[in-house]
Amino acid sequence: MASLSKGWRIQVRVINALMIRELATRFGRENIGFLWIMAEPLMFASGVALMWHFMKGTEEHGVGVVAFTISGYIPLVLFRHAVGRSIVLFTANGSLMHHRQIKILDFVLVRFLLEFLGHMMAYLFIAVALLPFDLFPVPADLGMLLLGWIYYSFFTLAFCFLLAPLSEMSEIMEKIVPVATYLMIPFSGAFNMMSWLSPGVQEVLWYSPPVHAMEMMRAGLFGEAVQTTYDFFYPVAFSAIITVIGLALCRKVRKNLVVE
To answer: What is the DSSP string of 143-184?
Structure first.
């Protein structure tokens, strides 16, 4: 038990040090510094929400357009940013592998955690800012909203674990992933609800794990104002399988990784 506790403390220090290094490398100490990690998704979401407001008005299908757009777009940007930053991640940080306390999985966890914290901060900030103007509702079920976020984040982390080693094994992944993240938008549930779609489209989207997570978030945020469809088991099982495959590939890549 003592060795386990010591190992945990070392791991926490490693993650903390890598997060500080990553923040300093990406954002520096000038202007607003590390707050850019929140400002980036905030600007993306605000711009898209404003565009949808002018295109579709204040409400659609009985829910506020601004709140609906923001609640879907910020998790989508989390997926795109986290997955994008996992590409060729091990090669970029290979010099740090000289420290035996640092494992290749730490690099994936650090970049995911930074993106997760930044997007959660952006979500909370814009929700609190819009709440007084009746542009964002008080969550009807905070537990369900957070559960949806957990499901979506687990799915995102699973794909980070998968694509990080795949990008080391094949250079073509660096070209494919940016395009693939754009193609994922219709399968993310970010800009529609299952109940708004035809039965045929619903049947297809049922097999997309982020749709289930997004439906949970919308159920927690809007409550009875929306009709939601989701399954608790399927997205977790899917993400768990992807995680296991990703971890196995990470182990394989580590054996062949050249530390400079």
So the answer is: HHHHHHHHHHHHHHHHHHHHHHHHHHH-TTHHHHHHHHHHHT
How many of the other CB atoms lie within 10 Å of CB of 191?
Answer: 16
Paired with 63 in beta bridges are 60
25-66 confidence digits (pLDDT tens):
877 666 656 677 788 788 878 888 888 878 877 788 789 899
Torsions phi, psi for 59 (to 5 deg): -135, 155
What single string gives the DSSP state of each residue in 101-126?
A: T--HHHHHHHHHHHHHHHHHHHHHHH
Place of tokens 């495959």: 245
Tell me phi and psi for residue 51, to 5 degrees.
-65, -45
Amino acid at 89: L
Contacts of 117 (CB under 8 A, 6+ apart): 37
Counts for the chain of helices (H) and strands (E), in that order: 10, 2
Check residue 151 and give its pLDDT: 97
Residue-level pLDDT at 226: 92
Q: What is the pLDDT of residues 144-159, one digit of tens each?
A: 999 999 999 999 999 9
CA–CA distance, 214 with 180 (Å, rounded to integer)? 19
In angstroms, how far is the first alpha carbon of the chain from the final one?
Answer: 35
Greater pLDDT, 110 or 55 = 110
Nearest to 194 by CA among 181, 212, 209: 212
